[in-house]
Amino acid sequence: MEKTLVLLKPEIVKRGLMGKLISIYEEKGLTVEEMKLILPTRELLEEHYAEHKEKPFFESLVEYMSSGKVCAMEIQGEGAIQIVRTLNGKTNPLEADAGSIRGRFALSKSVNAVHSSDCPESAERELNLWF
Hints:
Layout: E1 2-8, H1 10-14, H2 18-27, E2 31-38, H3 42-48, H4 58-65, E3 70-77, H5 80-88, H6 101-105, E4 114-116, H7 120-130
């Protein structure tokens, strides 16, 4: 079984959409193995997004992600990483498939509903940070 990290970002929690998004993953046959609601610290977010540290959007990303609670989940299933990324859709909701999570629920490219690991190595690193 493959594992991946999924973060439901602050706007999803604030808008009361956690259950709806979790059901999308579960309906696809994936399993939520661990889950917690957390107000992430700056330190956690800086480590999580370390590869973006030199990019111009880094500071606003950390500020946004620490602006409210985040639902962190370990999701498992055969091919979980690719399945989750397909369900999530492209980062920019204007380019995402209309039926994807971002196509349906994201408010903008920077307020884009969810994060998920992009490969097995990232999944292991990110899961160790959050759980």
